[in-house]
């Protein structure tokens, strides 16, 4: 139930952001004929905004980093 409420709140925030961008997607730029932004549907906008952020995996282990710094600091 809490998750559902959180998702509903997240959707409401996304809707508020999309509504603010809507005029930019429709009205032409004052110095041109095209709108400032390409139109994007709310569903597509919601997918982009709520997509979880995926962090790239580290190829270097913590031990490797430690050893690299240890070598850099150790006087020869």
What does this protein structure show overall?
By secondary structure, this protein is an all-alpha fold. The chain has one domain. It contains 3 helices and no strands. Helix 1 packs across helix 2. The model has no long low-confidence stretch (mean pLDDT 86).
Outline the fold blueprint:
Elements: H1 2-26, H2 42-50, H3 62-73
Brief digest:
The chain has helices spanning 2-26, 42-50, 62-73. It is mainly α and 76 residues long.
Biggest β-sheet strands, sense, barrel? none
Gross morphology: elongated
Residues in β-strands, percent: under 5%
Query: SSE order in H/E notation?
Result: HHH
What class do helices, strands and sheet pairing give? mainly alpha
Compute the separation of the termini in Å. 62 Å
* Count of distinct strands: 0
- The radius of gyration is 23 Å
Helix residue percentage = 55-70%
Count of the domains: 1
Low-confidence stretches: none
Average the pLDDT over all residues and give the rounded result: 86
Number of helices: 3
């Amino acid at each position: 139930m809490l998750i559902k409420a959180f998702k509903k709140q997240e959707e409401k925030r996304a809707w508020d952001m999309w509504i603010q961008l809507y005029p930019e997607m429709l009205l032409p730029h004052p110095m041109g004929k095209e709108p400032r932004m390409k139109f994007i549907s709310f569903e597509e906008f919601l997918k982009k905004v709520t997509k979880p952020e995926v962090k790239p995996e580290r190829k270097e282990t913590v031990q490797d980093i430690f050893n690299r710094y240890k070598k850099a600091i150790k006087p020869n």
